[in-house]
Amino acid sequence: PYVVTxxxxxxxxxDCVEVCPVECFYEGENMLVIHPDQCIDxxxxxxxxxxxxxxxxxxxxxHAWLDLNRHYSGIx
Length: 76
Ligand code: SF4
What we know:
Blueprint: E1 2-4, H1 15-19, E2 25-27, E3 32-34, H2 44-48, E4 54-56, H3 63-72
Antiparallel strand pairs: 1-4, 2-3
Bound molecules: iron/sulfur cluster.
GO molecular function, one term: electron transfer activity
Cofactor: [3Fe-4S] cluster; [4Fe-4S] cluster
Domain 4Fe-4S ferredoxin-type: 1-29, 30-59
């Protein structure tokens, strides 16, 4: 899946939410998150994010962010 990371904090844009075909964005405490089991890996949101906050989970060093996305999506 794709993962929302640090640059989303304090970002006011919602372009990602509007383009996601499966509506898998959720609100965390101070940022948006992506539900990792609902994301279909289309990559559209990554291109739309003006803060470059959205990255594929295959990128190194994103484990903690993936956990946080999972948590605020309501999985645990
Ligand atoms: Fe939604 Fe596609 Fe982004 Fe996943 S990669 S969150 S399915 S827009």
